[in-house]
Structure formats: structure tokens, C-alpha cells
Write a structure and sequence with these properties.
This protein is of the alpha/beta class and about 425 residues long. It folds into two domains: about 25-135 and about 300-350, D-Maltodextrin-Binding Protein, domain 2 (3-Layer(aba) Sandwich); about 135-295 and about 370-430, 3-Layer(aba) Sandwich (D-Maltodextrin-Binding Protein, domain 2). The chain contains 18 helices and eleven strands. It has helices at about 1-20, 35-40, 45-50, 60-75, 90-95, 115-120, 145-150, 160-170, 190-200, 215-235, 245-250, 265-270, 310-320, 325-335, 345-350, 360-370, 390-405, 415-430; strands at about 25-30, 55-60, 80-85, 120-125, 125, 130-135, 135-140, 175-180, 255-260, 280-285, 300-305. Strand 4 and strand 5 form a beta hairpin. Helix 17 runs antiparallel to helix 18 (about 415-430). It is globular and about 60 Å long. The termini are far apart. Residues about 1-20 have low confidence and may be disordered.
């Protein structure tokens, strides 16, 4: 018995030593959104199962995009896993910058990923990033303020209705603003919202010959509508508000409506964080009757940069963080309303999730976005709130700065559009389009 115990102890020590030798420390770059912050609090589960430890680099959205783009394009090697989206994934995969995720374990069930998410995170039919959560955008609104204004929100409202409601719900003396929208400059901040909105107004970034279209009537209508609406019914300092700033305003009860990522629904209905959690309704993003709504399609996803020395451990983390089991883990800790949404078909078939107030509207919003046909008139590009070409991020960041300056009152809509047209034309000519 003693010998057996000694041998058993020796075997256990050998396994521990082996595990320690194989254990890696993964450096992960991610965005400072609520679901990602929640994941950081649960990584002990990953470490206990694999032995691998995790070092987080958590950044604001615009900063994250700059850091990971610079690192991967220069082969900096700072990160073992990057949080990226539908814009970067196919472009970087084409460049050979990402590790293919074509051999995930059978238990992971890659076929369960929603087709819209899988398609947007693939290149040439191969998955290169796994969605942590997927999203579209929709209207989140205060049911009490809507009722006080004598209005009833349709499931699929028009922009005319939304603008009228926003003005009627505004009570600036009591620090309540009818609508909160992104104004912070950035291709993934204000330009995500404005581009998606422009689709509903019949605008497009480029015509079929790649000629910029900011000199069109549709773009003039879009930008003037946006500026007038925020001027009349938006909060002060709107030009500096992005996702997180507007989330905070809504949770404090200062927004009558907020049109933004569907993923925010769990945050605004969480009584731990939101003062209006029991007074929130949901509707599809508005349209103008032209056949396109103002919603986008996006996934925050996890990808492995080519050249990492920790590919195997990185793959283990991605499988853990984007699995059905992770969803169950979050549900057990935080409740079903707070699980990462929009990535897996099985979530929307789960009886525990079907009755969550925002589940149906989130799925309808995701399914209604069409990245292959995003605009009223034909375009040569793919993407709803972005144009899937490498030059877009730089161009759209500059355009976003001009539109944000117009929102801040530093220039007119016409001046902003003239500058957008000129800088886009210059950049596209330089790129050889």
C-alpha cells in the first residue's frame, strides 16, 4: 500500500510537472465592452481546466483597433489572441496574417455558429475568427417616456416616427434627452452608426465604379437629418459620445431612445447597473420606406495572429471562450439575460433564453442585415456599416472626424461633406481604384 501511494504521488507530481511545462501565458488584446470585461472575471475557469494563464490588454474601441492593426501588420508579436471583427477578418486572412480555425474540436460544434456570423468571419470558405458575441443594432427606448409622450413604438418604426418621438420625449430642464446616438469620431464609432443610417436614406459610399458619393443628395439628407435630430433632442457633448458613453447615459435615465448595438440590451435591463431596467422596450432600427433599415452587422471575435509561438494554447482559449459551455457558465453566474448573444443558433432555440425580452428583436435585427446587398442602389463592396476594403479604416476615420466636427458646431454639414468627398477621392486615387 505504501509503495502504491508513493508511486501514485510520483505519478501525480509528474503530471503536475508536465502540465507546468506545457502551460502558457497568453496575452490577449480586447475591447472594454461589458461582455469582454465579464469574460476576464471568469478566466479562472479556463486556467483550472488547461493550466494556461491569461494576461489581458483591455482597450477602448478606437485604441484597440489601432494597436492590433499596427501589431499584426508589422509582425510585432505583442499578442497571442486579438479581438477583431468582421471588417478585419477577411482582409487579414487574405494577407496571411491569421491562423485558420478549420480544425476546431467536434465538441465545439462550429456548425452551430449563426450563418451570418460564420460568413462574416470567414475567408474563402474557411473560418479565421470565432465570434465571442454577434450583434446588429436596434432601438432601445424608455417605455414610460414613450407613453408620457402619448406614443406607442411600432416593432418596425420609420425615422420620421423616431425623430418626432425624440423631440416629444426631450425634457432638457430635467436632463432627459429624446435620443442618444454615437458622435465620437472613428470608423467603428460614429461612422458605424452614420453609414448604417445612410443606407436607409438611399446613400452609399461609392458607386459601381468606386467613385465617392458624399456629394449626393442622399448623403446631404442623411447628415443634416442626423445633426438636426441630435441638436434638437440629443445630449450636450454628443460629439464625444461613443458606445460606452451613451450606455452610461441610458442607464442613468437620461436617454429616451438609444439606437446602438443589440448587445447593449442586457446592460440596460440589468437592475444592478441600470436605473431604468424595468422600463426598457425594443424595436428594429428605423427605415425611410426605401427597403433598407439602419441596422448594422458585427461580431467581436477572437483570432490568432500568424507567427505566435502559442498557437495551440490560443486555440484552446478560443474554444473555451466561444463555446456552448461558456454560455452555460455565464448563465450560471450572471443569469441567462447576460450571456453573450448573437453567435450561436442553439442559444435562440434554448428554452431558458427564448423568453428574454430582447432575444427575439436581437435575432430579427441580425437576420435583417444583408452585407451582400447593404444599400438601395448597387455598390461594388460588401459590408453594412463598413466597406470591406483595406483603405476603409483610414478613410472612414478621417470622414468621422469631419462629421464629428460638424456635430460639435465647428463646421456645417455641407463643409463636412465637401471635405469627406475630397479626402475619399484622394485616398482612393492613391490606392489605385
Amino acid at each position: 500500500m505504501y509503495l502504491r501511494n508513493v508511486l501514485g504521488a510520483a505519478s501525480a507530481l509528474s503530471l503536475i510537472a508536465l502540465g507546468s511545462a506545457d502551460a502558457e501565458n497568453l496575452v490577449i488584446a480586447t475591447v472594454n465592452n461589458g461582455d469582454m470585461v465579464r469574460m476576464q472575471g471568469l478566466t479562472d475557469d479556463f486556467t483550472s481546466k488547461t493550466g494556461h494563464t491569461v494576461e489581458w490588454v483591455t482597450l477602448e474601441e478606437n485604441v484597440l483597433r489601432q494597436r492590433v492593426t499596427t501589431d499584426i501588420s508589422t509582425k510585432g508579436g505583442a499578442f497571442d489572441i486579438m479581438t477583431i471583427g468582421m471588417y478585419e477578418t477577411p482582409i487579414w486572412a487574405k494577407n496571411g496574417w491569421l491562423v485558420a480555425l478549420d480544425d476546431l474540436s467536434a465538441g465545439y460544434d462550429a456548425d452551430d455558429i449563426l450563418p451570418a456570423m460564420r460568413g462574416g468571419l470567414s475567408y474563402d470558405g474557411t473560418l479565421f475568427a470565432a465570434p465571442f458575441y454577434g450583434e446588429s443594432s436596434m432601438i432601445m427606448y424608455r417605455t414610460d417616456l414613450m407613453a408620457n409622450a402619448g406614443l406607442s413604438m411600432p416593432d418596425a418604426p420609420t425615422w420620421e416616427f423616431v425623430a418626432d418621438a425624440a423631440r416629444k420625449m426631450t425634457d432638457k430642464d430635467n436632463d432627459i434627452y429624446g435620443i442618444c446616438l454615437r458622435g465620437k469620431a472613428g470608423w467603428g464609432e460614429n461612422m458605424a452608426f452614420i453609414t448604417a443610417t445612410s443606407n436607409a436614406f438611399g446613400a452609399r459610399w461609392f458607386d459601381e465604379n468606386w467613385a465617392p458619393q458624399f456629394d449626393s443628395d442622399a448623403w446631404s439628407t442623411t447628415l443634416n437629418f442626423y445633426l438636426d435630430l441630435l441638436g434638437d433632442a440629443g445630449p450636450p457633448g454628443a460629439s464625444t459620445n461613443g458606445f460606452n458613453e451613451n450606455l452610461s447615459l441610458f442607464q442613468q435615465g437620461k436617454c429616451g431612445m438609444w439606437i446602438d448595438a443589440t448587445v447593449a440590451a442586457s446592460f440596460v435591463t440589468n437592475p444592478k447597473d441600470s436605473t431604468v431596467a424595468d422600463k426598457v422596450g425594443f424595436a428594429l432600427a428605423p427605415d425611410t420606406g426605401l427597403g433598407r433599415r439602419s441596422n448594422w452587422l458585427w461580431a467581436w471575435a477572437l483570432a490568432i495572429p500568424a507567427g505566435t509561438q502559442k498557437e495551440s494554447a490560443a486555440r484552446e482559449f478560443i474554444e473555451w471562450a466561444t463555446s456552448k459551455e461558456y454560455i452555460e457558465l455565464v448563465a450560471s453566474k450572471e443569469g441567462w439575460a447576460n450571456v453573450p448573444p448573437g453567435a450561436r443558433t442553439s442559444l435562440y432555440e434554448n428554452p431558458n433564453y427564448k423568453d428574454i425580452p430582447f432575444a427575439r428583436m436581437t435575432l430579427e435585427s441580425i437576420l435583417s442585415a444583408d452585407p451582400l446587398n447593404p444599400t438601395v442602389e448597387p455598390v461594388p463592396y460588401v459590408g453594412v456599416q463598413f466597406v470591406a476594403i483595406p483603405e476603409f479604416a483610414g478613410i472612414a476615420t478621417e470622414v468621422g472626424q469631419e462629421f464629428s466636427a460638424a456635430l460639435a458646431g465647428q463646421q456645417t454639414a455641407a463643409e463636412a461633406l465637401d471635405k469627406a468627398q475630397a479626402l475619399t477621392a484622394d485616398a482612393m486615387e492613391a490606392a489605385g481604384y
